[in-house]
Amino acid sequence: MSTSSDSVPVVRARGVTKRFGEFEAVRGVDFAIAPGESFGFLGPNGAGKTSTMRMVSAVSTPTSGSLTIFGLDPAIHGPEIRGRLGVVPQEDTFDLDLSLRLNLEMFGRYYDLPRTTIRERTTELLEFAHLSDRAEDKVDNLSGGMKRRLTIARALINRPELLILDEPTTGLDPQARHLLWERLYRLKRDGVTLIITTHYMDEAEQLCDRLVVMDHGRIVAEGAPRQLIADHASREVLELRLGSEHHDEVADQLGSFAERLEVLPDRVLLYVDSADDTLARLHQAGWRPERTLQRRSSLEDVFLRLTGRTLEE
Amino acid sequence: MSRVLPVLGSRRARHVVERNALFYRSQWLMFASGFVEPLFYLLSIGIGLNHLVGSLTVGSHRVSYAAFVAPGMLATSAMNGAVIDSVFNPFFRLKISHAYDSILATPLDVDDIALGEALWALTRAGLYAVSFVGCMFLLGDTSSPWAILEIVGALATSFAFSALGLAACTYLRSWQDFDLITLVSLPLFLFSATFFPLSLYPRALATVVAFSPLYQSATLLRGLNSGQFDGWMILRLGYLVALGLVGLAVAARRFRRILSP
Amino acid sequence: MSEPALLGWSRWRRAWWFHAMYYAQTWRGSVVSSVLLPLGYLGALGVGVGHLVAKHTGLVDGQTYLHFIAPSLLATTAFQLGEGESLWPVLAAVKWTRSYHAAVTTPLEPRDVLVGKLAWVATRAIAIGVFYTLIIAAVGAARSWWVLTLPLLSALVSLAFAAPLVAYAAHVDSDLSFPLIYRFGFVPMFLFSATFYPVSAYPGWLRPVVQFVPLYHGVALIRAACLGGSLAPALAHLAVLAVLAGGGFAWGQVTLRRRLID
Q1: CA C258 to each of CA B95, C50, C83: distance values in angstroms, whole numbers, following the listed order
Q2: Which of A8, A289, B53, C226 could form a disulfide with B65 if both were Cys (CB 3.0 to 4.6 A apart)?
Q3: Do C52 and B187 lie within an 8 Å CB cutoff?
Q4: Exposure string over B230-240, b if 16+ CB within 10 A, otherwise e
């Protein structure tokens, strides 16, 4: 699909900021995305992800810093850049009164594609989105998961080299999410560069080769998912529910059992090498937690470590 | 010619027109029946009020009340059509369905959208104006073949109101705010000398009425309807076009601010 | 802690409040359509066109033009209130926002929702009726003691349209037909109900047809209440409107129940 060599990034940002009046949504971010890579932006609501996505989609322009997409300046080559990328926005936006097929066909026209090409691709994409039998239905009658797949199909009508997905699976049930992920793997396999924002850790771990963690408009960490976990969290986590209102007080006493510890409103997390061993030692010391949970560290823990907050709050 | 007007969009704007046409294709019955609506209004006046009111003076001609009111109704219908096409529908796409946001992900620009909406409004208005004037000929509400030029006057009216409407729709916050649009269009409709001549207004009010674009439009169309030309017509036409250009410039700026901050 | 089963009256009162609370958020628009619009028409047509009519024709059906159309404007306003509350708002409540579905998860029955809705429409129609009675009296068109019934007649006209239209809106799946109902139903009805000129202005063949236009009966009844007239035709107008309201109410119970429960 893309013939450019790996040395030319699809997107390169240097010191990019975005300001809305007094509010600085993005405060100087640097990143480069290689062709064929799938790249994640992780962060809670209000971290600056969506503002960054809109700049990378060549829809809004940076307040300062330099941004190139396909090596081009979006301020000058906006239409040309947008002609080569596809965007899956956070919210599905369709013409509710038109059929699925007409929605896709109309969208193709915005790219100045010839009508015969549009018709072929529409049929193909409806197949891809598993929606062929609903082609003549109104979009209004689709379920959430179907609409999401249709949005992705629509974003592919121009055969984009870069696909930008803003929270692609928010609000979907697990089955619908897995179907969507499967479609995204296929695109990745075909060499499409993917940019994904999400606040689901499992999604980021599943889909992204590399990701950045954003908080308050800044990038606070960057790397492959496993690498980030290795760098910023221990191997395993032991979660304790103590059945006491006074987590803060017990935290001091638990400190010696773990490399690090986080106190959440409903539980205490102990970052340890082996959750089994730690639990045994706790029992020996006379601790009787109400419930315990042993698990491997995840990006959630990385995020907690870096920002002091959970992602879903 | 890649740019239609210096700051107002590119040839890609035609895809927005195409999109709207596609939308109406799914509602063709509604679209087609719009051509019949003027008949209702013209018939109602022709049957009833015509007899009660008798004839009036326009310029140096005596015309029937129906022939007096019909151009005013044409002007009003151009204004009301603009409210639907340029306030209601764009508001829905701008703030409720966010359809414009998805268009902006394509090579189209904000200016293309504003221009495309204005062009669409004009296309539709042109079709309806043709049908309206056709109905007037049919019912004998015209007294000169020059009445055919009313189509041009109606287009200028639609342009003015569409552009102003497009600008206005960017300021609306919710459906509730449509009351404000009614609050403006309603007095315009009732007090723009559409139903009775300006001479019946109190003198002070008459001065205010002269600024009403609907009054200027109705008067222009009325002159054409009886084939009486005068120099004022150029001024009236110019007033409508100038309002339209101002509206379009404001609309393009406001669209940019909302869609691409 | 089971609440005692609510009596019908109490449930209706709650359903009425449900609509009243919503209206509290959205009342501004109704001031324009129910107060300013008809007053504007009264000024533009009653006074402006009335001046022309006086010069050319003199009296219309024995009345000045202003007195002739003042009652029409109450009738058309009541009609617009009835239809305006019924198509889109009801479809929205049973399809888009599903607020009626939410209402029937409480002790309210579909029938209570319908009664509450119509009671609310009637409330507003009565308020408009009181306001117009004052206007009609102010312009000197109140010639009969029957004007005191105007608030109730206003409610009857509103319900004659609201009841069947609510039933219809609860029945359909999409709003596709609504614009057509406006264009081919409401617009001609507004124009051809002897609203702006007497039935005698219609050509002979058209006059009997007017009898089949529901709004005509509303206009004629309210005009008779203001300006006086014989009792028999007034009772006939009353009967037509009552049948529409009653029939609509019966139909609405069926469609709303089917929509919300079955």
Answers
A1: 34, 50, 22
A2: B53
A3: no
A4: eeebeebbebb
Sign of the torsion formed by the C-alpha atoms of A80, A86, A87 and A92: positive
Supply the CATH number for residue A260's domain.
3.30.70.980
CB contact under 8 A, A79 and B26: no
Asked whether residue C3 is domain-assigned, the answer is no
Quote the CA–CA distance of A269 and A104 in Å, as a whole number: 48
Q: Are residues A24 and A136 in the same domain?
A: yes
Supply the DSSP symbol for B165.
H
Q: Is C61 part of a structural domain of the chain?
A: yes
Q: Residue B185: how many CA atoms within 13 Å on its side-chain side?
A: 22
Segments forming the whole domain that contains residue A132: 11-229
User: How many domains in chain C?
Assistant: 1
Residues A157 and A244 in one domain: no
Q: Average pLDDT of each block of 10 consecutive residues along chain B (261 residues)?
A: 49 86 78 82 85 85 90 92 85 84 88 87 90 92 91 95 92 82 85 85 86 94 91 94 92 87 76
Mutate to test the interface with B, among A94, A95, A136, A158 (most CBs of B within 10 A): A95
Do A178 and A258 fall within a single domain? no
CA nearest neighbour of B100 among A255, C117, A91 = A91
pLDDT in tens, A78-131: 889 999 999 998 888 887 777 899 999 988 988 889 999 999 999 999 998 889
My answer on whether A128 and A154 are in the same domain is yes
Report the sign of the C-alpha dihedral through residues A14, A18, A22, A27, in that order: negative
B3 in A contact zone (CB under 8 Å): no
| Alpha helices, DSSP H, located in A24-172 | 49-56, 74-82, 100-110, 115-128, 144-155
Give the pairing of strands B55-58 and B61-64: antiparallel
Q: Tell me whether residue A78 is in a domain.
A: yes
Whether A268 and A251 have beta carbons less than 8 Å apart is answered as yes
In a domain, C234, yes or no: yes
Stretch (H or E) spanning B40: helix B37-44
Q: Check if the beta carbon of residue C118 is closer than 8 Å to that of residue C249.
A: yes
